[in-house]
Amino acid sequence: MSKWLSMIFTVILVSVMTISGSQTTAIANDSSAGGFLTEEGLPPPGANDASCKPSAEHPEPVVLVPGTFETMERNFVNLAPLLKEKGYCVYSLNYGYTGAVPASGPIEDSAAELKTFIDNVLNLTGAQKVSIVGHSQGGMMPRYYMKNLGGAKKVEDLIGLVPSNHGTEGVAGLTKLTSTGADLASCTACQQQAAGSDFLLELNEGDETPGDVSYTVVTTRNDEIVVPFTSAFLKGETGNVTNITIQDYYPYDQIEHQNIAQDPLAFNFVFDALEHEGPADPQRAVGIFK
């Protein structure tokens, strides 16, 4: 039990970080110079290059959205440079600060920050849409932006790595302890990501996959944060939504919640979704390894 308690409070009671977190309040009209990017703090390698112009091959910039308590630089240190090498314009943000703790504030406010950031990216690049890759809360929060803030018409793909789409029954299944920890950490976003929260009930009411958007979910049976792991899955029309459990295709990959954002095998599904029309086709994505 001590192992789980240590893990829980490591996740919930995150240490104060030194990165200055602008709340992404830059005005879209000022985005042409890319100044809003510097306000986000230290980006992961390959991201937030104001001079990048989308190509005909990759017309949608990729926006990387970190998870609860995470910064963009830590969460996407591996994925961002790989996307850059493939020719994508890559952008990322920090959001939802409560004091110095990132991605912990009300998710509605964080979605508004994402809206401003994406508007700035579109103005900067001249693109019509973006594709979003998000980890944990970062894979779920954009759905609020898309459903309630007009974002569905500005998004080509939403790719969630272990997204908290239907919340968690508690870290490692310990519901009461997780709730107490969230209260102690003043983490509104944690409370909102509890299964059955008012926020999630409203978010998932009606159409879970609105707009002409391709939705890809990649999860792991070893997820100790989003419990059960199947709560990440989205309901939607065949052809618009793909729900992937990584062990169905890579049985020996025992990746868990946090490290899936650094897992090159999980990246294969991300790349497939970005490179083709529609959501990821897992058989196609892993085909080269057969």
TrEMBL record:
Q: Gene3D superfamilies from the xrefs?
A: alpha/beta hydrolase
| Keyword Ligase annotated | no
Q: Name one GO molecular function term.
A: lipase activity
What's a GO biological-process term for it? lipid catabolic process
Region (Disordered) residue ranges read 38-57
Q: Where is the signal peptide?
A: 1-28
Give the top-rank taxon of the lineage listed in the UniProt record for this protein.
Bacteria
- Sorted alphabetically, which InterPro entries does this protein's record hold? AB_hydrolase_fold (IPR029058), Lipase_EstA/Esterase_EstB (IPR002918)
Entry keywords, A to Z: Signal
Q: Name one Pfam family in it.
A: Lipase_2
Q: What is this protein called?
A: Lipase
Q: What is the lineage of its organism?
A: Bacteria, Bacillati, Bacillota, Bacilli, Bacillales
